[in-house]
Amino acid sequence: MTFQLGSSLLDACVLAILEKEDAYGYSLTQEVQSVMDISESTLYPVLRRLQKADFLITYDQPFQGRNRRYYKITELGRLRLLELQTEWKIYEGKVDSVLIGGKLDG
Question: What's the pTM?
């Protein structure tokens, strides 16, 4: 994708993925990469920031003799995701009205 995407959209994508199921860092990176260009080294600070804001918690699970850190959305994270989804719908409508044509609502 050639569009520059902001941190709020990245937060929304991460929270939406984790709303479906808990995930570890690498799998989360792979899923986010399906919609935007991001590296693991970019994603981990985002995960730490979301965790610090109490939108995520972590837990470890053994995997092939090592611990794998999983991320889980919190209730506060679910509320933040709803806010971001609402903001996205408004933004999407405005961009569509400019790119596709039509009337701008509001």
Answer: 0.84
